[in-house]
């Protein structure tokens, strides 16, 4: 018996065409789920679909969507439901690194853009997804999973990253509020506070940052993308049904160092 079979279920992954999102999408596809990727880059979307199709017995859909745009999210959710009929898990993974400026150099535009993508984007995605989940619950089919990609920076300090840290701390608050509010529908909400993983975003950082991280992480290495596959499947599966409102560090021990 396969304890983690997601056949017949549908998972959405925003920003799922690369990095952490694509790694999680691989696991979901391998477990048999239908996977809908919502991301902005059409070429990367197409490449992700080509990679994911055939990994399991589910289908894969990629939709061009900017999570900062409410109408775009509404259309993408409608298209996902049209293709697969239901949404069981939503990974609010899309995010940006922030403006990368010191606090004295913060601009309203830079701050607002980071919040619009990292925090408001997740909230708007949850808005549209939970409308479906609640309606399904009221028809006798309760349940749903909300999983947010947060960051260890939400609980730790890093230079020149105040907007990013604040956006992810707000995402943690959204997670706890959603868990409390939606529990009556058996919808759970959790956030994964990722530490240092090698991605397109971290590749743009100063090389000294990677060196500093490698010395500070107790396990002395970045996170491995393959390990994210099982993590995503666990949080999408019924085996995580009694876990909600949690903000779980996934960081090799960085937050305790």
Automatic annotation (TrEMBL):
InterPro entries: KR_dom, NAD(P)-bd_dom_sf, Sc_DH/Rdtase_CS, SDR_fam. The keyword Oxidoreductase applies. Residues 9-195 form the Ketoreductase domain. Keywords: Oxidoreductase. The keyword Glycoprotein does not apply. Coiled coil: none annotated. Pfam families: adh_short_C2. Belongs to the short-chain dehydrogenases/reductases (SDR) family. PANTHER family: 3-OXOACYL-[ACYL-CARRIER-PROTEIN] REDUCTASE, SHORT-CHAIN DEHYDROGENASES/REDUCTASES FAMILY MEMBER. This is SDR family oxidoreductase. It comes from Erythrobacter fulvus. The lineage of its organism: Bacteria, Pseudomonadati, Pseudomonadota, Alphaproteobacteria, Sphingomonadales.
């Amino acid at each position: 018996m396969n304890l983690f079979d997601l056949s017949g279920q549908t998972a959405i992954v925003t920003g799922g065409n690369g990095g952490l999102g694509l790694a999680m999408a691989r696991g979901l596809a391998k477990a048999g789920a239908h996977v809908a990727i919502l991301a902005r880059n059409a070429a990367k979307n197409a490449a992700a679909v080509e990679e994911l199709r055939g990994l399991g017995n589910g289908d894969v859909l990629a939709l061009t969507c900017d999570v900062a745009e409410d109408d775009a999210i509404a259309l993408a959710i409608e298209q996902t439901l049209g293709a697969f009929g239901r949404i069981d898990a939503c990974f609010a993974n899309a995010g940006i690194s922030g403006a990368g400026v010191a606090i004295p150099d913060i601009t309203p535009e830079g701050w607002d853009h980071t919040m619009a993508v990292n925090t408001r984007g997740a909230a708007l995605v949850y808005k549209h997804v939970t409308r479906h989940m609640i309606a399904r619950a009221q028809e006798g089919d309760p349940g749903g999973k909300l999983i947010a990609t947060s960051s260890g920076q939400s609980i730790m300090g890093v230079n020149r990253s105040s907007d990013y840290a604040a956006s992810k701390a707000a995402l943690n608050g959204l997670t706890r509020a959603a868990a409390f509010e939606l529990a009556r529908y058996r919808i759970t909400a959790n956030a994964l506070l990722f530490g240092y993983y090698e991605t397109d975003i971290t590749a743009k950082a100063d090389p000294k940052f990677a060196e500093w991280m490698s010395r500070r992480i107790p396990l002395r290495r970045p996170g491995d993308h393959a390990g994210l596959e099982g993590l995503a499947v666990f949080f999408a599966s019924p085996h995580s049904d009694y876990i909600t409102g949690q903000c779980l560090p996934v960081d090799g021990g960085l937050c305790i160092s």
